[in-house]
Amino acid sequence: MAAETGTVDLVTRREAIRRVGTMLGGAALVGQAAWLAGCEGEYYRNAAAGEPFSALGIELLDEIADTILPTTSTPGAKAARVGAFIATMVTDTYDPREQRIFRAGLVTFERECRSELGTDFIAAAPAARRTLLERLDREQLDYTRRSRPGADPHYFRMIKELTLLGYFTSEIGCTQAQRYAETPGRFDPCVPYTPGDKTWAPHA
């Protein structure tokens, strides 16, 4: 996705690692109240807050997340089942207001996707998906910068944050995209690092 410096490109795997490290180190996530317009549509068993997402809803979240973090030299977000993680986090940890924002946002997302691309996101070509997400990323960044404290978050920012959190706390994210040490051993405040090396998993 577009980096917050204003460039229009999908976030690199290294930049995503940096961002999620910052988030896990204490930066506020949307939905922190629990963990850190009514909805309608085929992607939910029930659009009311607290109801689980349908299989199609999880598939849509998987495809969005995998466009943000695709497979490169390591598996992408879909392989890490990030869609199911996002659905669980929204259902189990977001308060009712945040859930309504998120679910209504997905309805808006699919409506805009059909309007811009002429098809549902799941059926869209990879390049078209990227174009749509890049536009939404610029939109959420501008909205977030202009918003007053306490304003409703932009739904696409919620999706991005949960995608990064879900991927880099998954087994794939910790052990393949990052270096993982189950028993880290002694504390070393200054570990040699060569540009291009994988970062350490945050909890290792």
List the helices and strands and how they pair.
Layout: H1 13-24, H2 55-68, H3 82-93, H4 96-117, H5 126-146, H6 155-168, H7 171-177
Q: Note the total helix count.
A: 7
Identify low-pLDDT runs: 2-9, 24-28, 30-47
According to DSSP, the number of beta strands is 0
Structural class: mainly alpha
Sketch the major β-sheet.
none
The proportion of residues forming helix, as a percent range, comes to: 40-55%
Measured distance between first and last alpha carbons: 27 Å
Description:
With 204 residues, the chain is mainly α. It has one domain. Helices cover 50% and strands 0% of the residues. The chain is built from seven helices and no strands. Helix 1 crosses helix 6, helix 2 packs across helix 3 and helix 3 packs across helix 6. The longest helix has 22 residues. The protein is globular, with a radius of gyration of 17 Å. The N terminus is likely disordered.
Provide a concise account of the structure shown:
The protein is mainly alpha-helical and 204 residues long. The protein has helices spanning 13-24, 55-68, 82-93, 96-117, 126-146, 155-168, 171-177.
Feature tags:
204 residues, mainly alpha, 7 helices
